[in-house]
Design a protein that fits this description.
The protein has about 350 residues and is mainly β. The protein is about 10% helix and about 30% strand. Strands 13, 14, 15, 16 and 17 form a five-stranded antiparallel sheet that branches. Strands 1-4-3-2 form a four-stranded antiparallel sheet, with no helix packed on it. It is globular, with a radius of gyration of 29 Å. The two termini are about 55 Å apart. About 25% of the residues are buried.
Length: about 350
């Protein structure tokens, strides 16, 4: 950037007072007529102005939220419309909750957060490349899609692009496109990370999943001929470092519970379970690493079969069974191995 020196104003270069007044008046008028930022419009029933709501008397639990053409809110008890939030020139495609807040993906690549209790639009975030991927223009066969097929594709991809991670007390969200992923803090929409796949690879948003702690995004890599040669799965967290693992090109990820996922990588490699809270894989029972495992299998491991065999001199070894234990001698349930805490 080049800087120009200040120049001294001559009397001829100074505007007359009347001209200054006209300029200020024109600026004020332009400001008054300035469109609402991002085309936001919040209205009540019948397009009336939405009345501010006491957030303590109304929450997302009291409302039925729907998308299309904007974010529409209806009272659950009466079914009446409470308010609507729309953006000029854009259509809402998908909705997900991050804690008590509603996150909406729009067809122009914008993502917004709304607090349902008082219908306040909390923040906006534009995602580079999201709109192009949602519409799929220029893809093979795109010109043959009907309007209904284009709409269905956009809604499917919007659902694949947005992942909300509830993480107790501090929810966040990830936005995924084939060439970019971003992590945002829901509290203020602040960008916490962004990442691109390595050369020759793309993310697959439609295979991505999330738990209450992390987002896991599969990726596919191709060679110079365009053939899929490898793949991988990258895990992202907001409170700690993420991780990555190599896989085949068609690995799948299935959510088991709030923290665990099962990764299947073809018919030859056995499925493995990964704990996204501990950021470590479960160690299979019988493994030599089991005594030092960071994550034990859910429900624990069965006792070593050799320990169940009768020892020498035991009555069972001589063919006589021991007396059955009485109820008083039965082991209490608290002595049983406990499962992995969540």
């Amino acid at each position: 950037m080049s800087w120009k020196p200040l120049r001294v104003l001559t009397p001829r270069s100074i505007l007359p007072a009347s001209a200054v007044v006209l300029v200020l008046a024109a600026g004020a008028a332009a400001h008054a007529n300035k469109p609402v930022p991002f085309g936001d419009r919040v209205a009540g029933p019948g397009d009336a102005g939405a009345t501010p709501v006491n957030s303590e008397s109304l929450s997302s639990a009291d409302l039925d939220l729907r998308v299309g053409p904007g974010l529409e809110a209806f009272h659950k008890q009466t079914g009446e419309q409470a308010w609507s939030y729309r953006r000029e020139g854009a259509e809402a495609l998908y909705l997900a909750m991050a804690g008590d807040n509603a996150i909406v993906v729009w067809d122009d690549g914008m993502v917004t957060s709304v607090r349902p209790g008082d219908h306040e639009v909390r923040w906006h975030r534009a995602v580079p490349g999201l709109a192009d991927w949602l519409h799929g223009d220029g893809e093979p066969g795109a010109d043959k899609r009907t309007d209904a097929q284009r709409k269905a594709l956009a809604m499917q991809r919007a659902a694949g692009a947005l992942h909300t991670v509830q993480r107790d007390g501090s929810p966040w969200l990830a936005l995924v496109t084939p060439n970019l992923t971003m992590g945002l803090r829901d509290a203020d929409g602040d960008l916490r990370y962004n990442d691109k796949p390595s050369g020759g690879c793309v993310y697959d948003p439609l295979r991505a999943v999330h738990t209450d702690y992390a987002v896991l995004i599969p990726r596919t890599c191709t060679n110079s001929s365009g053939q899929a040669v490898s793949g991988g799965i990258t895990g992202y967290r907001l409170d700690s470092n993420g991780w990555a693992t190599s896989t085949g090109p068609n690995a799948t990820v299935k959510v088991l519970d709030r923290s665990r996922v099962e990764i299947t990588d073809g018919p030859i490699v056995p499925p493995k379970v990964f704990d996204t809270k501990a950021a470590a894989p479960e160690t299979p029972c019988g493994s030599v690493d089991a005594p030092f495992a960071a994550v034990r299998p859910q429900g624990g491991c069965a006792a070593d079969p050799s320990a169940l065999l009768p020892a020498a001199g035991d009555p069972a070894a001589a063919g006589t069974a021991p007396d059955a234990p009485t109820p008083d001698s039965a082991a209490p349930t608290g002595d049983q191995p406990a499962g992995q805490p969540q």
